[in-house]
Write a structure and sequence with these properties.
By secondary structure, the protein is mainly α. The protein has one domain. It has two helices and no strands. The N and C termini lie far apart (about 35 Å).
């Protein structure tokens, strides 16, 4: 934060590093449509990933271990 507002620096290598992963995800999406099949990862997977991220952030904030069921 400064007099011009909020800023966040980004890592220039981020996209280049993850590019193969993004391409694989996009290809799988297209293949799902072309092959009329469900995706390898579903809604439950995405929900759990977000849940774990929030719990991890809370654990760091509190400086403790939080066990998930």
């Amino acid at each position: 934060m400064d007099e011009h507002g909020a800023h966040r620096e980004y890592t220039q290598w981020f996209y280049e590093y993850w590019k193969p992963t993004y391409l694989a995800e996009m290809q799988d999406f297209v293949d799902c449509i072309a092959e009329d099949r469900p995706p390898r990862v579903g809604l439950e997977d995405g929900y759990r990933a977000v849940q774990w991220a929030f719990v991890a952030a809370e654990a760091v904030r509190k400086g403790t271990v939080i066990r998930m069921k």
